[in-house]
Amino acid sequence: MSSRKVAGPEIETLIQLLAKLPGLGPRSAKRATLHLIQKKDQLFAPLTKAMEVALDEVKVCSICGNIDTSDPCTTCSDPRRDDSTIVVVEDVSDLWALERVSAVNARYHVLGGTLSPLDEVTPEDLNIARLVERVRQGAVTEVILAVNATVEGQTTAHYVTDQLAGLDVKISRLAHGVPVGGELDYLDEGTLAQALKARTPF
Amino acid sequence: MSSRKVAGPEIETLIQLLAKLPGLGPRSAKRATLHLIQKKDQLFAPLTKAMEVALDEVKVCSICGNIDTSDPCTTCSDPRRDDSTIVVVEDVSDLWALERVSAVNARYHVLGGTLSPLDEVTPEDLNIARLVERVRQGAVTEVILAVNATVEGQTTAHYVTDQLAGLDVKISRLAHGVPVGGELDYLDEGTLAQALKARTPF
Question: What class, spelled out in words, does domain B67-173 have in CATH?
Fold first, then answer.
């Protein structure tokens, strides 16, 4: 905000809070606020109502750690999903990303982060014990580790694998390789080496 | 949204409504929703509260047509502003834009649009009569027409000027010319011609 106030403190507060949303800055938050005010009945009122409801209803799924308005969550309570496979992801955003492409019709498990000694994230801070328990219950035959291809993600994947050792379950991870539509010239060496190593018959 | 639902209907509704904000699309609305849910206490709850308050308090200023949480609005009730000058703008967003640069310390008048026969916007739909009334009351010595340099903006400016004819008030408009930092090579002929005609001593 400039030094001069354009509007009352209630509107200034709204602009400042909207500016904290990813994708919005101070300037676009101002534009969004104006848009809301000008579309009071069509957008402002319904959005406020939707936020009140969601804020009130949102909870963490006690089975998989997903965030939803019901517990068990939508994916855990969906009867058409394959109970024998659990896709392990770091965050809810990863679950949403996988669901966006409808890549898999299995159950999920959200770890809630990655192991990171520097940030003091220990195994107890992650939703790992619950995963072991789910696998131990027996219906699961495959765990797909869909963690990020970062050092923390891979470290976490190794730790989870260790915890699942001895249980009768297949553990797999996402393939590394050339992104679809990607150009070799722009790929890093690590990815290129992995893609070559994991080459498939044509 | 993809065909498959990631979350309960309350969250889907929230995503769809957030996607209607300028600057957000379906994908960034999803990201924003997740961000809200993950920062429930720090952002989601305060933002919802701020929206409730703003929604409840927002009103149109009976003097100038600005939108604010008080009537008269913040600029109309500011005692440090110059009562002798009224800056006429098309929309509240223009008022905010002028205030952002603190270009002028005067009063404002928001027309609420421009004359447009095609869109069936007639003088009665705009906040023009109230402007004439304000000028007629006598304290105003100058009206600055800060309308957009579009056909509709200029048509509206002419109409407003006609309505103020006979009243003892100076009417001015924003200067046309080369934008600060602009390059001549990229300017349209109309702007160049105007800039040349309105050249100032160096």
Answer: alpha beta
